[in-house]
Prior knowledge:
Elements: H1 7-17, H2 23-36, H3 43-52, H4 58-73
Amino acid sequence: MGEKATTSDVVNGLINALGNTWPDVRESAWKALRKMSKKITTEDIMNTTITALENDNSFIRCNAYQALGKISEKEPTYDVT
């Protein structure tokens, strides 16, 4: 079988899919990112999510709001150096 994808590979693939010309592909990518948002928070996801709030597609805007909500529910982590 093939190699397992890393989380960052999956996220990057989904972020790339957000630019797809087919609305169904973009919507599916948002669904997946929204589900993953509790486990991961990256600058790329935040920037993409904020940009999506201005999208013409109401489904994409709705998923972006839901993703932000899940991100805000995540417990904060603190780096100690």
